Amino acid sequence: MISDGIEDEEKWLAEGIAGIQHNAFYMHRALDSNNLREALKYSSQLLSELRTSRLSPHKYYDLYMRAFDELRRLEMFFKDEDKHGCSVVDLYELVQHAGNILPRLYLLCTVGSVYIKSKEAPAKDVLKDLVEMCRGVQHPLRGLFLRSYLAQVSRDKLPDIGSEYEGDGDTVNDAVEFVLQNFAEMNKLWVRMQHQGPIMVKDKLEKERNELRDLVGKNLHVLSQIEGVDLEMYKDTVLPRVLEQVVNCKDELAQYYLMDCIIQVFPDEYHLQTLEILLGACPQLQPTVDVKTVLSQLMERLSNYAASSPEVLPEFLQVEAFTKLSSAIGKVIAAQVDMPIVGAITLYVSLLTFTLRVHPDRLDYVDQVLGACVKKLSGKAKLEDSKATKQVVALLSAPLEKYSDIVTALTLSNYPRVMDHLDNGTNKVMAMVIIQSIMKNNTRVSTAEKVEVLFELIKGLIKDLDGTPMDELDEEDFKEEQNSVARLIHMLYNDDPEEMLKIICTVRKHIMTGGSTRLPFTIPPLVFSALKLVRRLQGQDGDVAGEEDPATPKKIFQLLNQTIESLSSIPFPELALRLYLQCAEAANDCDIEPVAYEFFTQAFVLYEEEVADSKAQVTAIHLIIGTLQKMNVFGVENRDTLTHKATGYSAKLLKKPDQCRAVYACSHLFWVDDQDGIKDGERVLLCLKRSLRIANAAQQMANVTRGSSGPVTLFVEILNKYLYFFEKGNPQITSAAIQGLIELIRTEMQNDTSTTDPASDAFFASTLRYIEFQKQKGGAMGEKYDPIKV
Amino acid sequence: NYIIGAFKPACNISITFSDGKTRKQVPLKKENGQTAMVPLFQSQENIAGKISIEPVQGKKVEHNGIKIELLGQIEMYFDRGNFYDFTSLVRELDVPGEIYERKTYPFEFSTVEMPYETYNGVNVRLRYVLKVTISRGYAGSIVEYQDFMVRNYTPPPSINTSIKMEVGIEDCLHIEFEYNKSKYHLKDVIIGKIYFLLVRIKIKNMDLEIRRRESTGSGANTHVETETLAKFELMDGAPVRGESIPIRLFLSPYELTPTHRNINNKFSVKYYLNLVLVDEEDRRYFKQQEVTIYRLADTS
User: Fold this and answer.
1) ipTM of this complex prediction, to 2 decimal places
2) Mainly localized where (chain A) (predicted)?
3) Cβ pair A249, A191 in contact under 8 A
């Protein structure tokens, strides 16, 4: 059926074309022989082909164009009065004798064009007559093309300013009036098209109708090209009249297209100055019209305009562009109850973009937009629609991009409220965007208040929101998120210690809600940030001493203590331990013994109670030893307790080699190579001897269990420790002892059962070489080494 | 009579008008279908000229007198051959005698009353003719005719109201139309508009027709003949409520005559404007309005 229809149409078109060609042939003959009567007869017959109702707009256009070409020739003939001998006035009457209206009006328009050109009558009269007479064609398709023809032939004959047809009572008003009228009539016809034909082919009709839209829109283009249409005329006449037509036609397709057309064809400054009128029409459009796109286009144009030259910005202020747009959007949203939420948000995004570009300094505007958006979203819990979500993300990202300074966004009170409407996943994404923005721009967030807001914004990352499906979390994503938060914490900074403390407290308050999975990521940066502050305070200690200053290191340490404690309660003891040690060190630097002691105690408690893994123990004990070695704040008693503990734990490690190494490391606890560091040679020696014993035991154990003794590495290591203290001048470490140790190693190495290990052999060899080198170097050290025989 | 004359013309009779060279000639359709140019007169004019009688070579024409008549005749086609003379004027040109050679007689009918115009209709004809009769006793009279045309001019009417009317079919179609005048001259233009108040039918197009109604006879013998002289498309396609369609119809291309009302109780010619709307099922809706057509003197 359908293919038949198309074939039929092809056939009809072919017939129509043939008809035109046939009559055109005779018309040309008549034109060549200057026979007016015949020319009119055949041109009229030719035009009768356009009376068909059987063609689709597309095919009809084809036919029309062919007729159009012929009419051009006829017009040339009409112009030449010598040829046909008929005055243009008579000609104007003569063509009206035609019985059929369509050919009659085509001919009338053609002669009318010549008539205007001849200037025998005022252009406005002819134009008015033509546009009135064309009312006779009420068939939408034929009428549209006829009026399109009229628009075409009259286009260069409008009495525009500066045109040769202006003057003698012909003013630009007449030109505008003419085009407006033709436009209105064309639009009516166009809108009416949809009511033609049966319902079942409605879609097809709409598609066909859409193809014709440019015929209507062309009138607006013509209007925009009329020189004489200045702002005043545009405002008082053109725009109201066009809008009246648009609104009254009550047709979705037409309204959308024409609004878009208006926005595109007229200059920006006109739009700016007539915003109120233009926007006033928007809520009056049909509820199904895609107003959001229309408004978005408008705002896009205006923002481009604003961006194009800064001089125009005052105009925007003067006309209160923002207020007008904002209220218009509100009205549109209120008017179109069925508009999906995504539509409304898209509008707000456009408005926001506009605001950011035109009024970058008006944060209150931005906030206002967000507020309006919140209002729209309120009542709905979370957005389900993914498109809407996308738009919200766009909405929220826009200020970030513009200001490249999150601090600005933080002052927007509605910003977090908008975020609340995002689903959890998107909320996180948005939070990441915010953090990335901060990172990228290296923004310092410098007050507790802002931090509070910021953390409110990114709370999706900070804690479990209600209903987060935990199992969906991708571990890698999670890590990345948390690492970002960690990085963010470092961006929070204020030179004023008090404020900084407040910041830290705020951060702490938030991250403590994070739960066991997040704390390991978030606590360390917080601790280090706090320690940084401690160190700063320590520098200023003298200046602020005695004052009732809340930001004292003590206070911070208390805070830290609590913080780290929470980490140990969840099973991250190693991390907690490290942090305790860090704090202890800081306390040491601040010269606060009890605090340092407390931290150490905590560290030890953790070691005892929580660190069970032997490897972890080794690492932990070495950390403890290392830290403890650095401490100088402790009194003898405290120090003894701690060192005793440390050595004790060292000797209780599971593996012998670990024991050995830990013990000889402990030796450093008693010999601090500082000006007034502790120098207890005896206990150093004790440690070393103890480690030697352990090494021996280890060797024997190896013999028993594996039938071969292990490598001599441990011995060589101990030898190196001996050498170190020997050089540092520990009186308890004698050359004889060293000599003995060397011999011991040699014996071990020659032992049949010993396994040779090239690494330890080389280690030993280079140690010996070092001794030799020291001996040869001479001087005090050389002499000291002299007794040692290698 | 003609046949005899043609068969054996005893003499040639020619009728010439004294202002024949300057008088306007107009085409007149004759019974045989041909058109001939004839002089144009109007009422109250003097009709003068000469009759010239020229016997055929070497013959003489004996007669019982020569006369010229001016006749205004109405001829009904269904009653063919019967003329009704509403005007008859006679001038005796010569007393009985003989004519041997060419002889001319001047004649004159002064300020002749010719109230009716020449008319050629479907069933009726009104004509003016000059008839020259050479009476002969036994051989039959010799007769010669000369047609001429009469047109009477009317001044523009002092009262010429527009025709305005609202018509419709309930809940279906309601229109208001307006013609700018009720009396139009032959070269006039009908200006007007049709305003659609209600449209519930799918109209395909709308035409304005000019119809001529010629009625002849009277009483039971009345014959009415209606012709559509013009069919002028006013609108293409279906209008919607509130549309106003302009009318501009030039009358000059159509062969109209003035309206004739009750010409000598024999016939009438009336004109009507018929507004016709055709819907998509080709149903016709129409409204007919009489208009008066009159002849305005040519200003040229």
Assistant:
1) 0.89
2) cytoplasm
3) yes
